[in-house]
Specification:
Elements (H helix, E strand, L loop, with lengths): L19 H13 L15
Length: 47
């Protein structure tokens, strides 16, 4: 196990996408840019 320091900045976002595919592509791009989110949650409109 490796511990990482707490980030200097914390941001919370709520983003809507036209499709789950577009959301997944965006997540991949974010991680590829070196941003490693602490958490992500995907929700669809089905209840």
């Amino acid at each position: 196990m490796r511990l990482t320091p707490n980030p200097d900045d914390v941001q919370t976002l709520l983003i809507s996408f036209p499709s789950m595919r577009k959301a997944a592509e965006t997540v991949s791009a974010i991680i590829a840019d070196g941003i490693v989110p602490a958490a992500m949650e995907a929700m669809d409109q089905k209840q």
